[in-house]
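Readers outside the structure-tokenisation community will struggle with the description of the input data as it stands. I therefore recommend that a typical entry be quoted early in the introduction. An entry of this sort, consisting of the sequence and the corresponding backbone structure tokens, reads as follows:
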Amino acid sequence: MGKILAATTVAISSLCLAPALRAETLVVNSYGGPYEAIIRRAIIEPFEQQTGIDVVYDAVGAASQDYAKIKATKGRPGFDVAVMTASQSLQGCQDGVLERLDPTAIPNLRYVAPKLAKSAGPCGAVHELQYMSLLYRTDKMESPPRSWSALASPELNGRIVLPTFQNIMALYLVEIFATMNGGDLTGNLDPGFKAMSDVARQSIGFEQSSAILESYIKDGTVWAMPFWNGRAQLLVDSGLPVDYVRPIEGTIPLIATLNIPVAAEHKASARKFIDFFLEKTSQEAWVSAYKVGSARTDINVPDDVRARQITTEADLESLLLPDLSVVAARLREWGEQWEREVVAHQE
């Protein structure tokens, strides 16, 4: 009888303790494909081991679709952390559907470069940088292009492809050409549109999808085009006769952020995840594995990675950073101008 009572007592105690011992579940929404495999290995699995929190990975929807879901549900989309962009972080703060991030709860926010933190606003934690590079075929071009103006060179007539305006690289190109021709990043883009109209005459067309854009350079139809450097590096690593450069005039980054919907169920765990992702060792692992840049400039990464990525103060100073709030306000207007002054000249 004594043994039965003891066993019963242990069983009851175990049942009472079970909820406290059960790991909390955190739902992280991001991308699928190679990205998912890398983030699981470099970030999620180490985070689970360190914290005991179970991460459910939700690879559904593009960043714009995910933000639309956050907005439609008033900050209760069914996931706790979303990987988005600085533009969406700013918009989400303005719409009141993203949580403002506090450095006292997420200490590693203090190590994010101030100019990048400002670009993302108070609701976004910058965990990754890519930049628009000039990707080219090493077996087709006599020498590597050094300037964005190479896109208008006779050598590349009929050998380039351009993004549609729905792909943010299109606007970035206009902004860069504007700075090269007496304009600026947001106040006066007219010189950029004029320069882009000349480039459009060289283009075989416009495509929105990165997968379709890269197919042209893979088969040799296109010899050069703008492309995100992270994806460009994957093509280099695959063995294709391609390489990419950061042109002498500079470039504009794609600033990726971690965000918490305002009505997320597991906010405390979400803050822990963001802080873990921004940790020095985590950033080193992420930059080395995914071949992207970091908003932390104190990380140690292999020399070959550092040479191609944004990882130092000097790299950050070389970036062109348009005011994303102005971009959001004028995007439709500029899209109409793109159709009139760029697309019309290609046809």
